[in-house]
Amino acid sequence: MRDPFLIRLNDLLAQIYPDHDVKALSQSVQDAFWPEGTSRRKRARAPSNNLWSERDCMVITYGNSIRDGQHKPLDLLRDFLTRQLKGVVNGVHILPFFPFTSDDGFAVTDYRAVNPTLGDWPDIQRIAKEFKLMSDLVLNHVSSQSPWFNEYRQGHEPYDKFFFEASPEDDLSEVVRPRTHPLLREVHTANGTRHVWCTFSHDQVDLDFRNPEVLLEFLRVTRLHIDNGVRIVRLDAVAFIWKEIGTKSIHMPQTHAIVRLMRLLADFAQEPVILLTETNVPNAENLSYFGNRNEAHAVYNFSLPPLLLHAMLSGSARYLNRWQATMPPAQMGCAYLNFSASHDGIGMRPAEGILPPTETEQVIDRVKAHGGLVSMRSLPDGSQSPYELNITFFDALKGTMKGEDDLQIDRFLAAQSIVMALEGIPAFYIHVLLATANDLAGVEKTGVNRAINRHRWDYPALNAALMDPQSTQSRVLTEMKRRIAIRGRQPAFHPNATQFTLQLDDRIFGIWRQSLERDQSIFALHNVSDELVEIDPVAINLIDGHDWYDLLTGDVIHPHGAKIRLEPYQCRWISNRQ
């Protein structure tokens, strides 16, 4: 009987590398991912809803988001996680923790080492024993100062064929760009002058996946991470990994085939490995990375942050509702990762085709008024377009289109409650949990717009703030933890539980969730405005004869009783069980 795993692996390799010896390459892939002493499952892990539950919630953080100048940052991070979040948040994404030269970790010099300024592998392992750990596989590019690139410049095998070269004479006009700098960088090598492809910066040189040795190297790196406790592998900038001259060089068929190959390996891994794709692109393109239940287990819900920001600033959930009503439920074995903010800015491309240009302009103007910045990208015609908004999500909500007010915390918590209630797994950037303000000094010091949202907290100062019940940090983290804990006890908030978007007052973002067992329903209502809104219970079809409870306040809601009041930015999670 032919091995189903080998049939699928060989078929994928034939699609990606039709000019190579598929049989030999297949064995090399297996040796890379399952080196001596490890083995694969006999059968693939079947797609199911069991890789996650309503109890799952993640925090996104740099390894040194917290520091004190004395202790290893990874030790401080573990202390913060166990003191403040244990029992409420069960997963952590530690952003690139490797040696690097720029982009706060995303220009990697050594994929096999932990940055010594943070700690070492045992520190990573300790965190992985207590929290579900996500790491970055920065597979599109490598630092221009890395040993790989140095070997390339010297013409040494195998690295002499590791990087994507092009010519200034090539037609690159259709290439989709996320930045404004020239795409090609001229470098001098032992083999003469070359021009290497640099999607993100000239310090981040793109690798050439047309060379199977590049893929094999990343499979070995993935195995190293898994062996050190990583259970969620984030495929950074994966949409750009395959290039062809004369094309857009994004979302290429070979790119999707490589993701399918990695999913195949994950499904046959003994460890429960989850693949997460990071594709900050328009919504339909982003969803394509689910494949047919055979690519990513999870995708970032990239359209959520800009649409959520618009709703909170405008006081209308019109576009957020319209988008959510058209979103397909994740297929079996797949899930959305919901978030409002990350280490990067608030991407505007995922709102394309959803948010009208006039509304986008209003959001940009308000973000600027709240101290934010705008990063641009180049278009094929030579013009530029906003790529992302650089601001902390907390400061983005200082006010509304009307101006600043004193409802910032309420508005902010309402936004985060929407992230918690939606179908999918919620993830919160550490600066969301801590309501961090814009780090303008960081921008001035580094000259990098994204530094505004990458503040490094002094741990003693942070602890002092969290011990003061009146501080913004204490108020926000305390209430965030309360709501996350409530969410984690509701089967109707399972990442794959049924979801239906309610069509109510435009000031209300409402969804109905039903548990997989159909024994719990939650009507999650969120007032995105600074006005009192009243909803007739009949409008949300509360079943008569049942007791209904607001999980957030404890109020009893009667199907034929008084109207449901939502104060400015109030959220109500109305359930048929307490």
From TrEMBL:
Domain Glycosyl hydrolase family 13 catalytic: 56-487
Signal peptide stretch: none
Entry keywords, A to Z: Glycosyltransferase, Transferase
InterPro entries for the chain: GGa_phosphorylase, GH, GH13_cat_dom, Glyco_hydro_b, O16G_dom_2, Sucrose_GGa_phosphorylase-rel
UniProt xrefs under Pfam families: Alpha-amylase
Keyword NAD in record: no
Identification of the protein by name: Sugar phosphorylase
Organism expressing this protein natively: Donghicola mangrovi
Taxonomic lineage of the native organism: Bacteria, Pseudomonadati, Pseudomonadota, Alphaproteobacteria, Rhodobacterales
